[in-house]
Amino acid sequence: MTTHYDTLVIGTGTAGYTAAYRLAAAGQRVAVADRQAYGGTCALRGCQPKKYLVAAAEALERAEALVDRGIAAAPRLVWADLQRAKRQFTDPVPDETRAGFEAAGIATLDGNAAFVAEDTLQVAENRFTADHFLIATGAVPRALTIPGAELLLTSDRFLELPRLPERILFVGGGYISFEFAHVAARAGAAVTILHRNDRPLAPFDIDMVAALLTATAAAGIRVVLNAADIHIQAEGGGRRVAWIGDAGSDSCVVDAAFHGAGRLAAVDGLNPQTGGIAVSTGGVIVKNTLQSVSNPRVYAVGDAADTPYELAPVADREAEVAARNILHADGVTLAGAVVPSVVFTLPPLAAVGLTEAAACAQGAAMDVRQGSAAHWPSSRRIGQQHASYKVLLDPDSGSILGAHLLGHAAGEMINIFALAMQQQITAAQLKAMLWAYPTHVSDIKYML
After folding, report:
1. Which pLDDT belongs to residue 296?
2. pTM for the full model?
């Protein structure tokens, strides 16, 4: 027997449940399906549990910076206790998520979902048809071809480590590697990052990344750029990782090596070809309405869609757009959204809008305001050694083209710049604001 729904949502993470709730509230008969525990990457294996680790490392960092400046001795990070605190958040998520769906009248399906026809999905042993399908399956680690890649652990495993290894290596220089490296280093591990070219954290401004690399080295983290011919093999109870870098052949033995070399949309298991769903390496190919270009029944959002951003707030907004278009077919898009992003290192690196390189490539006229904030009172009072900023302004209108911050509270301050860009608040207007003082946000006027 085949059961029919108005919309069947595949994936129960932040994007999946945002869409499912909107559709059910509008009166649709909705089901959600997931092959993993309900709750998705952000709540269980990404944003939220990561910030538990980052928050503890940040507290430790702040205390260490103030030793002999009013603090007698720095605390230490107890990994097992930190994991227990994190699990107090993550453990209830699956049951709470499922209960929320059921309370909203949304059917819950368990098992791998795969298309058996353009209008039919099989979940475990059962088949379902729907007027619309919404794919919100997230992403998985990119398959690597380096010898010994099977010996790498995933970021999921890092978040679940019962104890922290003494020596850790990350392959790849993106968000995951840098954030976890900074946590591990503050917890006492010796950490190495290998990156295949000279541009780690490529979406971010090159000058700001250089400043972060300086801070990273100061934290005792070794970052190897232009690492080629990486080989991994088991040695004793650990891993020997060898590579060729700018200084020639090198290697190190670590207790654990982790995959931080990017993620791909988790769509292969959906059998997209049978579902008539065009996909690329970035995910389901969609129109700007989030509708599949090849199967009009299908929408895709978040990391599963071939869209520019892999960020939870963008996934939520995409889910809202997709739900609106499923309900009303009125062609709503995400056009004009201003998207800030943060690498939660210590200190964090935050950005919104154009980098200087991107602005130059577009031929945009700009005034660049940049400098170090390490000597400012807001840095000195907390013992911060690494802080900098770069703000790009339109010379005629004074509008903000881009903002890039490195330092404590950068993740909060960047939201002010994003708000200004979204609401077309000029630099002069932003500078004229009366901020609570002295705060990190009140430093914005000095950046302008």
Report:
1. 97
2. 0.95
**Residue range 132-138: average pLDDT?**
97
Report whether 299 contacts 291 (CB < 8 A).
Answer: yes
pLDDT surpassing 90 at residue 335: no
Spatial distance between the Cα atoms of 322 and 327, rounded to a whole number of angstroms: 9
Cis peptide before 347 (omega within 30 of 0): yes
* pLDDT score for 1: 75
pLDDT at 415: 98
The angle formed by the CA atoms of residues 235, 241 and 247, to the nearest 5 degrees, is: 140
Q: Work out the percent of the chain whose per-residue pLDDT is above 70.
A: 100
67 forms beta bridges with: 71
Amino acid identity at 363:
G
- Exposure string for 415-427, b = 16+ CB within 10 A, e = fewer: ebbbebbeeebbb
d(CA 152, CA 374): 37
Per-residue pLDDT reduced to its tens digit, 408-438: 999 999 999 999 999 999 999 999 999 999 9
| All domains of the chain in start order, with CATH | 2-141+264-328 (3.50.50.60), 149-261 (3.50.50.60), 347-447 (3.30.390.30)
- For residue 238, what are the β-bridge partners? 235
Please count the other Cβ atoms lying within 10 Å of the Cβ belonging to residue 18: 22
